[in-house]
Write a structure and sequence with these properties.
about 120 residues, mainly beta, four-stranded antiparallel β-sheet, about 0% helix, globular
Length: about 120
C-alpha cells in the first residue's frame, strides 16, 4: 500500500520561507517521479515541481528561482524549499508519486500553505 505523508505547511508572511516534506512508503516503482502540486481555492491543481529518481527536475515558471525540489532516495522523502513566498503561493500543496512528470498515480493528503501580505 502506497502512502505519502506531507508535512511542513503553515502560515508565513510575504518574503518568508517554508520547507515541505513528503515521506513515501510502499512505492511499487523502482524508477519514479515524485512531485509537488498545489491547488488554490477555485483553481485547478497545478504542478509546482517534480523530480525523477535519477535526478531530473521540472519546475513551473512561476516558482523558478524561488523554490527548490530535492529528494533523499534512501529515506524515500521528497522536499520542497520555498523561499521568497508570495500571497499567490497560497494553496494546498500535494505530494505525488508516479512513473513520469505527467502521470502521477498516488497522492498525499495535502498540506496548507498560507502566505499573508
Amino acid at each position: 500500500q502506497v502512502q505519502l505523508v506531507e508535512s511542513g505547511g503553515g502560515l508565513v508572511q510575504t518574503g518568508g520561507s517554508l520547507r515541505l516534506s513528503c515521506a513515501a512508503s510502499g512505492s511499487p516503482f523502482s524508477s519514479n517521479v515524485m512531485a509537488w502540486h498545489r491547488q488554490a481555492p477555485g483553481k485547478a491543481r497545478e504542478l509546482v515541481a517534480g523530480m525523477h529518481s535519477g535526478g531530473a527536475t521540472n519546475y513551473a515558471d512561476s516558482v523558478k528561482g524561488r523554490f527548490t525540489i530535492s529528494r533523499d532516495n534512501a529515506k524515500n522523502t521528497l522536499y520542497l524549499q520555498m523561499n521568497s513566498l508570495k500571497p499567490e503561493d497560497t494553496a494546498v500543496y500535494y505530494c505525488s508519486l508516479g512513473t513520469w512528470f505527467s502521470s502521477p498515480r498516488y497522492w498525499g493528503q495535502g498540506t496548507q500553505v498560507t502566505v499573508s501580505s
